[in-house]
Design goal:
Blueprint: H1 2-16, H2 29-40, H3 42-45, H4 66-75, H5 90-102
Helix pairs in contact: 2-5, 4-5
Length: 105
């Protein structure tokens, strides 16, 4: 019974981490980064980057560079899924990483 429950929870987590096809973004690069964050990141990292749900890192405490953040967003790491097939365009990854950097305290 425990294994069945664990399997079910794993499936729910994986479904929750998938996203719909790329949405239309508008505004400045900073606004586009925030829109991407709200769509793809807020459920685990929280609106302030400090939620830590499902093992998500607390972004306010991150010491990663923009390049490292982009790499993790694209390829995933640990419990973080890869978004290279979900988020389209190199600019989108840059906007998102720059927004993540604004969450640092």
């Amino acid at each position: 019974m425990v294994l069945k429950s664990l399997f079910f929870l794993t499936i729910l987590f994986c479904v929750g981490c998938t996203d719909s096809p790329q949405e239309i973004l508008s505004g400045t690069p900073a606004e586009k980064g925030e829109q991407l964050y709200q769509t793809h990141c807020v459920r685990c990292h929280g609106s302030d980057g400090n939620k830590g749900a499902s093992g998500a890192k607390q972004l306010q405490k991150s010491t990663l560079s923009k390049a490292q953040i982009i790499d993790i967003i694209k390829n995933g790491k640990g419990v973080m899924p890869a978004y290279k097939n979900t988020i389209k365009g190199d600019s989108s990854f840059i906007w998102l990483a720059e927004y993540v950097l604004t969450l640092k305290k």
